[in-house]
Amino acid sequence: MDIAKIAAAGILTALVYSLIRQIKPEIAPFVILGGSAVILVTVAGRFADASSAVNSMLELAGLEKENISVLMRSLGICVVTQFAADICYDNSSSSIASAVELAGRVGAIVLALPMLQAVAKLALGLMK
């Protein structure tokens, strides 16, 4: 992953957003959405590397392989939630952004509950 290219895309998107906001403010949020989508698609390719690393850690811990999908879905919830909240903050909707962040936190916790139960069972088994 070339972080310089991603940073350049972010700066370019911010500059275009600033220019468009002065000329046509109703279109400006779509510039941010488009630029962010390009960056997210670029980064999405790296999720496979993270998935394999987490999978090997789960094998070392003796946890089930289904937990990798829970972790990746939780990570996806976090990324999407932060992305949506940042767009809300950029458009002066901090109350909506806070609600989106809360929904993301609750969603990640609910999704991770089965994995937390598995970790608790493992810990109990180690104590006995």
Summarize the structure.
The protein is an all-alpha fold and about 130 residues long.
In sequence order, what are the helices and strands, one letter per element? HHHHH
Number of helices: 5
Give me the Rg, rounded: 19 Å
Would you identify the regions where 5 or more consecutive residues have pLDDT less than 50? none
Major beta-sheet overview: none
Shape: elongated
Quantity of strands, as a count: 0
Strand content: under 5%
Mean pLDDT: 83
Q: Please report the distance between the alpha carbons of the first and last residues.
A: 45 Å
Residues in helix, %: over 70%
- Secondary-structure-based class equals mainly alpha
Q: Secondary-structure map with pairings?
A:
Elements: H1 3-23, H2 28-44, H3 47-61, H4 66-90, H5 94-127
Helix pairs in contact: 1-2, 3-4, 4-5
How would you characterize the overall build of this protein?
α3 packs across α4. With 128 residues, the chain is mainly α. The chain has a domain at 65-128. The protein is built from five helices and no strands.
